[in-house]
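2.7 Reproducibility. Because tokenized structures are sensitive to small changes in the input, we list the exact sequence used for Sucrose phosphatase-like domain-containing protein, including any N-terminal residues retained from the expression construct. No trimming or masking was applied before prediction.
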Amino acid sequence: MIVAFTDLDDTLFQTRRKLPAGAAGLTPATVDRDGQPHSFCTPAQSALLAHFAASGVTVVPVTGRDPAAMARVTLPFTSWRVLDHGLTVLRPDGTADPGWREQVLAHLAELAEALAGCTEHVAALAAEHGCRLTRHRAHGAHFMTVLKHPQADAARLEALQLAWEALLEERAWAGLHIIANANNVSVLPRHLGKAEAVRYLREQHFPDAALTLALGDSLSDVPFMNACDLALTPPAGQLLRTVTAARLPQR
Ligand SMILES: [Mg+2]
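Resulting structure tokens (single pass, no recycling of outputs):
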């Protein structure tokens, strides 16, 4: 058995804005809240999915999407699914895996005070910078706070990121960390995420997999990519852009 654990947004599909003008042969992959096509697979992304399907590869999405956002993905995923940045593992029948839920809720109970502290600490500053603050829940428990700026203003998002980084250090809240991308900054558990969910699935449900592939575009995907046998990443994604810019000495 071969299992492909794969991020979704900007790995298997992306919005039209991120595609070259006049890109052809696109296949709709998600819809927006009004049911209109929103993200698309390129011919190469469609070919990869078709290849996986034809060769019997089990494809397991590993995404930050919550269940509502996952429901707007129109690609046919039929196996296990990892949602909410790893906090939710769905079985093939669509119900939450109870063993994983139990572990997650126990871990979140330990982090509840720090997460609430981070959220309150930055609320006024977020409003000042015109950023929207959202508390995300999994299994009914707060696990992540996200700040978004409507125009994705990098300077304002960075100011909030720095405020959070300073607070985490000052309070020694090592169980949380910050992830940032183009239009948002989030605080979420450091030791419970996509990587731990992928390890859990490998151990509990795919112990006999001959090969596990990991597909992702972002730095936040790296831990789960490191939990698989082989990693694939798109050019010009956050991950390869960072590696390209690193100019590390060759040893
Ligand atoms: Mg992605």
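The domain at 99-189 is CATH 3.30.70 (Alpha-Beta Plaits).
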